[in-house]
């Protein structure tokens, strides 16, 4: 308990800062510590809750942790023995699929534990470069195989304490260090020119700013020395490097000698380390001798004689939310392999089920596959986490009852993003314009015109009437899109703050997150589009599984849908729905003209809703022809009504 109390006490220093930053964030969604880097996310604050509308959730899942543990192929028994409170930490563990799932699932079963199984061969540094962006914390303890013995409660408490004391501390070692200079007499902390793994802790923001770990600095089993090369970039970018308990350092690793700090960055780093060694310096006193752009690695401008990790050449990452729909796996995977070769696949398996089926089906994926066992956090948080784990320039969000079918669906989407730079969200299912004057009380939104593939419904859907002139692809701009598939540039998704966590508690359906993200795009000056993807929809046992599988799940789904649709009017007051829809309509007509100018206005959309929807709800309260007639009078559209039942009802 003393350890937990220490974490809580120290984390208050971070928590207060987060609260203040959220309070002043307001409607400026882009001011949340993000950049346009398509490889590494700088996201460590999610989208701010708007107007205090966050849910009061009774869950042990933590949206934000003071410290996360990122472990590569860990010895789980040694790790659990060294940390008595492992269950209370956020843990992200990278495990090869051949290791199996049984031991990892049994050990890492806490409310904030994520197991990342990967089918492709990955170096240890490459694995950490995936796990650290995925973390939701200020500090990350990075653990390589063999470091478990040093990854204990004392190391975690020391890391939290030292990073809280020193705002410019970027990297903290616990074993071998180069050119150590104590910060004060008898202090357990000392500044160092460089540190090695064994393990090491990093300030996540600093790690992402300098480009992460080099994946090629020391080939042939010397990856543990990558922390030395990272040390040089930390100093050069204005951060400091330290070592805890320098008097208890263990012997250097056999391959540490392969990395020479002087060869990496000359005398500059050593001089900066010396200047930082004054007694208990504050963050403002740390002035590096030589400052370089902080994005030098992630933006392709590495420091002299250093090798920085990159994007891996991945164009597209497909991210899927999955929960106990094992019968659909074969159909989905066949569609992906047949229509989207070369993509990277990431599956958020909230149910921690069907491991064998997923691993077998991911074999042969050129881009590799990641199966993430999550603690049942559901779609919003699952998509957000895996977006930070992904590396593709484009992210394709799917559900576990969506399956690609047409060979060219991805090529068409990529061409649209190239031709329309303002396009930051593309749907391949259905889209909406919130045209109309009446709020549908059963849905809490304006039930305006819907576009996309036709269904048996009276109201769905209008055809996409315009096309991209360069490719002939049927395409239009819309105000809102429906999930499955949703396609976004990764840099845009991360810089906008990802899907909004205030729309559901962890473990509950986030119905409406697709609408909210669509509205947010227009609100922040980005465009939303719709095209025909040709996906198979609602495959398998769609009606009796997922969020419709039980009464509780169905009730939670409907409750959140009504709440969230109403919440949009508070979150985007003065913009949703009239100004937002007008912006989408004007952009569509200005960009594509022609058919876009013939779409229904508010009066026509209201008449369509009254005739095709409301008057057919005769068995429900506030529905039927008479209710439609009253609503028509109130909306001032009675003169445009042509439906005989509604007209007859006016005579009653």
Q: Indicate the CATH architecture of the largest domain.
A: Alpha-Beta Complex
Would you give the CATH topology of the largest domain?
Answer: Spore Coat Polysaccharide Biosynthesis Protein SpsA, Chain A
Classified in CATH, the superfamily of the largest domain is Spore Coat Polysaccharide Biosynthesis Protein SpsA, Chain A
Strand composition percent? 15-25%
Uncertain residue segments: 1-52, 257-266, 277-311
InterPro entries: Nucleotide-diphossugar_trans (IPR029044)
Organism: Tetraselmis sp. GSL018
GO molecular function: glycosyltransferase activity
Protein name: Glycosyltransferase 2-like domain-containing protein
Q: What does this protein structure show overall?
A:
The termini are far apart. The chain is elongated and about 95 Å long. It has a 17-stranded mixed β-sheet, with helices on both faces. Strands 20-17-22 form a three-stranded antiparallel β-sheet. It is α/β, with parallel strands linked by helices and 652 residues long. Helix 4 (124-134) packs antiparallel against helix 12 (378-389) and helix 18 (602-612) packs antiparallel against helix 19 (625-635). Strand 12, helix 10 (329-339) and strand 13 (344-349) form a beta-alpha-beta unit. 33% of the residues lie in helices and 16% in strands. It folds into three domains: 2-31 and 62-285, Spore Coat Polysaccharide Biosynthesis Protein SpsA, Chain A (Alpha-Beta Complex); 316-584, Spore Coat Polysaccharide Biosynthesis Protein SpsA, Chain A; 600-649, no CATH class. It is built from 20 helices and 24 strands.
């Amino acid at each position: 308990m003393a350890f937990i109390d220490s974490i809580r006490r120290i984390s208050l220093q971070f928590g207060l800062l987060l609260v203040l930053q959220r309070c002043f964030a307001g409607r400026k969604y882009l001011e949340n510590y993000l950049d346009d880097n398509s490889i590494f996310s700088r996201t460590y604050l999610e989208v701010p809750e708007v107007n205090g509308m966050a849910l009061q959730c009774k869950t042990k899942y933590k949206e934000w942790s003071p410290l996360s543990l990122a472990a590569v192929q860990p010895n789980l028994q040694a790790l659990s023995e060294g940390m008595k409170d492992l269950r209370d930490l956020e843990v992200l563990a990278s495990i090869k699929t051949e290791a199996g799932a049984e031991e990892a699932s049994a050990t890492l079963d806490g409310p904030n534990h994520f197991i990342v199984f990967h089918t492709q061969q990955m170096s240890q540094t490459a694995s950490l470069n995936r796990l650290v962006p995925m973390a939701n914390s200020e500090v990350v303890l990075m653990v390589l195989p063999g470091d478990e013995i040093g990854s204990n409660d004392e190391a975690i408490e020391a890391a939290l304490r030292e990073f809280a004391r020193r705002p410019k501390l970027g990297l903290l070692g616990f074993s071998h260090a180069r050119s150590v200079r104590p910060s004060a007499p008898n202090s357990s902390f000392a500044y160092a020119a460089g540190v090695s793994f064994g393990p090491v802790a990093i300030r996540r923001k600093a790690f992402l700013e300098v480009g992460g770990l080099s994946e090629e600095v020391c080939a042939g089993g010397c990856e543990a020395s990558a922390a030395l090369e990272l040390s040089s970039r930390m100093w050069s970018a204005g951060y400091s490097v330290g070592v805890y308990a320098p008097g208890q350092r263990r012997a250097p690793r056999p391959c540490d000698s392969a990395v020479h700090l002087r060869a990496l960055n000359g005398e500059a780093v050593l001089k900066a380390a010396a200047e930082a060694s004054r007694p208990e310096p504050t963050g403002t006193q740390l002035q590096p001798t030589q400052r370089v752009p902080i994005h030098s690695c992630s933006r392709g401008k590495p420091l002299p004689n250093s090798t920085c990790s990159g994007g891996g050449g991945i164009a597209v990452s497909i991210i899927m939310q999955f929960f106990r729909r094992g019968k659909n796996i074969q159909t989905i995977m066949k569609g992906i392999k047949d229509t989207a070769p070369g993509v990277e696949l990431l599956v958020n398996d909230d149910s921690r089920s069907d491991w064998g089926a997923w691993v077998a089906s991911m074999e042969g994926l050129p881009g590799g596959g990641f199966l993430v066992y999550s603690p049942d956090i559901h779609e919003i948080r699952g998509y957000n986490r895996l977006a930070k784990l992904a590396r593709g320039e484009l992210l394709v969000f799917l559900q576990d009852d969506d399956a690609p079918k047409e060979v060219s669906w991805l090529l068409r989407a990529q061409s649209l993003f190239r031709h329309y730079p303002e396009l930051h969200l593309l749907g391949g299912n259905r889209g909406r314009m919130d045209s109309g004057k009446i709020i549908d009380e059963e849905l809490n939104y304006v039930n305006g015109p819907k576009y996309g593939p036709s269904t048996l419904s009276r109201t769905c859907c209008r055809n996409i009437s315009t096309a991209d002139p360069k490719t002939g692809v049927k395409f239009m701009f819309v105000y809102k899109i429906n999930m499955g598939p949703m396609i976004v540039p990764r840099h845009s998704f991360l810089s906008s703050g990802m899907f909004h966590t205030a729309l559901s508690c962890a473990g509950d359906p986030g119905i409406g997150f697709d609408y909210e993200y669509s509205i947010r795009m227009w609100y922040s000056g980005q465009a939303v589009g719709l095209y025909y993807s040709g996906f198979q929809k609602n495959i398998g046992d769609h009606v009796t599984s997922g969020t419709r599988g039980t009464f509780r799940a169905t009730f939670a789904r409907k409750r959140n849908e009504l709440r969230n649709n109403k919440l949009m009017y508070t979150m985007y007051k003065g913009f949703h729905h009239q100004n937002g829809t007008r912006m989408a309509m004007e952009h569509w007509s200005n960009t594509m003209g022609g058919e876009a100018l013939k779409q229904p206005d508010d009066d026509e959309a209201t008449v369509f809703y009254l005739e095709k929807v409301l008057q057919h709800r005769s068995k429900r309260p506030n529905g039927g022809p008479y209710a439609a007639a009253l609503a028509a009078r109130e909306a001032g559209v009675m003169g445009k009504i042509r439906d005989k039942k509604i007209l007859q009802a006016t005579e009653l």
